[in-house]
Design a protein that fits this description.
The strands form 2 sheets. A 6-stranded mixed sheet has the order 4-3-5-2-1-6. Strands 8-9-7-10 form a 4-stranded antiparallel sheet, covered by helices on one side. 60% of the residues lie in helices and 9% in strands. The protein is an alpha+beta fold.
Length: 694
């Protein structure tokens, strides 16, 4: 093994342009895959950082981290909206009337807000300054006392309001005591006692995004890692020939394997280092893409040193393992390789991995639907993606054999024989495009159903508030002024039907049933607002009852935000996977030309025109690409439907996949592949003019 390093250095110095091109192509293939992998893996930690910054707004989180402390404040966090934008409102007050709070300042605030003080985020401050108080500002009574800093915000454009109240003004004392004693749970949107503010995130909405981020990581990272393995096997035939000669002149199997491992590891390490640099350069641009309501700070997205070092170690190891495994034939029988003995065709037994893989995936989805973890489903999805690499070469061999059998012209005949002779290499050339097709099929299979489910029944704008009986008439008059076409329905607390119908009371007895010493309960006022008057209606009701119930178009804000993010992420994932596929196809195409250098040169010597060879390459790329991509898109759409079932979407609500979108992206992939073949024509011309000797 002591000869491996000197031999590798000698081959680098004396190997010429082809030797250097081989290692450069491997490094480039690794780099393109690793950049996308690092970008998609950045989303999870960024969501965790965002969840930690907004954890202080959830009194349930504060209670979970401070059970041994004595509460001195009351907190209530509500969700408000303005023209489709979500506003986070937090109300704070000392626990007891006339008392103070030792809770401390919430993250991002300079102090605990006093009664009548309002703190807003910078974006909220700009919005309040640009709108009439009757439309928005009057919902938050008090004077502007300060700005919320970045430490208390999910992102720079988040709309946040913190309103201070007098001691004892929030929540019912008995209910607050029950929560403190642990006999009553903290419910969302209700006032709760707190001792301090939590800094450990657990936001339910961001949990959904974490699951989606893990799904995206599987969809992009698994194909990217498969392409890392493919990049390590670039110019495999050329490498096999060279190492077979070394074996025939006396090199040991260990030396042959060690030489390949060293070359591949160095190329993959260089590619990984370049990828890390590219990742850090691209990150500021990727940070501009909004998710969960806003863009991420670059610091949130940037992976720490540990993941980057791990990538620098694991990626070269993966690439080296893939390259070494491809050399089994050289180690066992170098003479057959040197004499170009035809490889055996891929066995149809490869298809046997498909049924059990899908069975495990479906069973994991059923388990998740019943309340199980999402980990099993994501592992199953990764396994489904990996089956393409197993089945792809066999499908490619079938296509090549069929094309060679029916071809009547030189170009398709050459293409068919090349494909059948090296189906693994032929599939490797288009594997990036095939994996891109699977991602597209998944996205176009899922998004139509999510769109339909998220937007059901959202045409109205309906608000329900509880108004004191004495104020009902005045409120109804105000509502009629700001929105004359609104439909107002009032249910009075004094309605006789509110009394127990089983009591046999006459009218006088019913009138005496209420306790004269208690304040009558408020009336329920429901308003179906028009689009023009909706914000003013909401402001009037929110002044009286900040906990007003919202339904219809203004009540499904989270669903709309999630849907917008899914659509945006679908476009980004589709374009990213297509870019990765184009790069992989270009690199694999060049390596395929270098692998077939001797054959191409001999064909040129016997008079085969360059145009025929170029048409053969188009056939060699387009036929496997079209057939395999159609199958991959179908598999991706089916996997998307399984994921919908895992997320408890009723089968009756599942919408057919967007076949038109898949067709457009498939056509774009085919056009891109043909363009790549055209752009690599100079490499074909230069290589086929060389002397046909190894």
């Amino acid at each position: 093994m002591n000869v491996v390093a000197p031999l590798a250095a000698l081959l680098w110095r004396r190997g010429g342009l082809r030797q250097r091109a081989t290692l450069v192509l491997t490094a480039a293939g690794v780099s393109a895959s690793v950049v996308l992998t690092l970008l998609v893996l950045s989303v999870g930690p960024a969501l965790d950082a965002r969840a930690d910054r907004i954890a202080w707004r959830d009194p349930a989180r504060s209670d979970a981290t401070t059970r041994d402390l004595v509460p001195t404040a009351v907190q209530r966090t509500l969700v408000d909206r303005y023209e489709g934008r979500m506003i986070s409102r937090t109300d704070l007050a000392p626990l007891r009337a006339g008392g103070g709070s030792s809770t401390g300042a919430p993250p991002g605030l300079s102090r605990f807000p006093a009664a009548g003080e309002v703190f807003v985020s910078p974006a909220m401050g700009r919005l309040l300054a640009a709108t009439h108080p009757a439309v928005l500002g009057d919902r938050y009574p008090g004077r502007l006392a300060g700005t919320i800093g970045p430490a208390g915000l999910a992102h720079a454009e988040e709309l946040v309001v913190v309103v201070g109240h007098p001691g004892g003004a929030l929540g019912h004392p008995t209910l607050l005591d029950d929560i403190t004693a642990g006999t009553w749970p903290i419910l969302p949107g209700e006032a709760a006692p707190i001792a301090t503010f939590s800094t450990i995130g657990g936001d339910a909405d961001l949990d959904r995004y974490r699951t989606l981020a893990r799904t995206a990581a599987v969809l992009l990272a698994v194909p990217a890692l498969l392409l890392v393995g493919a990049a390590a096997r670039l110019t495999a035939a050329q490498r096999e020939q060279r190492l077979a000669v070394l074996r025939l002149v006396g090199a040991t199997p260990g030396a042959a394997v060690g030489l390949t491992a060293l070359e591949t590891a160095v190329a993959a390490l260089v590619g990984t280092v370049v990828a890390i640099g590219g990742y850090l350069a691209v990150l500021p641009h990727a940070a501009r893409i909004p998710l969960a309501g806003g863009a991420f700070p670059v610091d949130d997205l940037r992976l720490g040193p540990d993941p980057l070092v791990a990538a620098g170690v694991l990626v070269p190891l993966l690439a080296t393992a893939a390259a070494v495994l491809a050399l089994r034939q050289v180690v066992i029988g170098p003479l057959g390789v040197a004499r170009r003995t035809r490889r055996g065709r891929p066995a149809a037994l490869r298809l046997a991995v498909v049924p059990p893989t899908w069975a495990v995936f479906v069973l994991a989805a059923r388990d998740m639907r019943g309340g199980g973890s999402s980990t099993g489903v994501l592992v199953g999805l990764a396994a489904v993606i990996a089956t393409l690499a197993v089945v792809g070469p066999w499908v490619t061999w079938v296509l090549g054999s069929g094309l060679a059998a029916v071809a009547r012209r030189p170009a398709p005949l050459l293409a068919g024989r090349r494909i059948a002779d090296d189906p693994k290499g032929a599939y490797r050339t288009v594997s990036g495009m095939v994996l891109s097709g699977l991602i597209a099929g998944f996205l176009f299979g899922v998004v139509p159903t999510i769109s339909a489910v998220s937007l059901e029944g959202t045409d109205s704008r309906e608000y329900t508030a509880y108004v004191p009986e004495a104020d009902v008439a005045a409120v109804e008059r105000q509502l009629a002024v700001v929105d004359p076409r609104a439909v107002i329905t009032t249910v009075s607390s004094a309605e006789p039907d509110d009394l127990d119908p089983d009591l046999d009371l006459d009218a006088g007895a019913r009138a005496d049933a209420a306790d004269p010493g208690e304040e009558p309960p408020p009336a329920s006022v429901t308003v179906s607002a028009t689009e023009a008057g909706a914000e003013r209606v909401r402001t009037i009701l929110a002044r009286i009852d900040p906990e007003l119930e919202v339904s219809g178009r203004d009540g499904d804000g989270r669903a709309r935000t999630l849907l917008d993010d899914l659509r945006r992420a679908s476009v980004v994932l589709a374009l990213a996977s297509l870019a990765m596929a184009v790069a992989a196809t270009a690199i694999s195409g060049i390596s395929s030309i270098l692998d077939q250098r001797t054959t191409l040169a001999r064909l040129r010597l016997v008079g085969t025109p360059l145009a025929v060879l170029q048409r053969a390459r188009r056939w060699q790329t387009s036929l496997p690409l079209v057939v395999a991509s159609v199958g991959a898109m179908a598999a991706g759409a089916a996997a998307g439907l399984v994921m919908l079932v895992a997320f408890a979407v009723a089968p009756s609500r599942i919408v057919a996949p967007d076949v038109g979108g898949m067709a457009v992206l498939g056509a774009a992939a085919l056009v891109a592949a043909v363009l790549v073949v055209g752009l690599t024509r100079p490499v074909l011309a230069a290589t086929s003019r060389s002397t046909p000797r190894d």
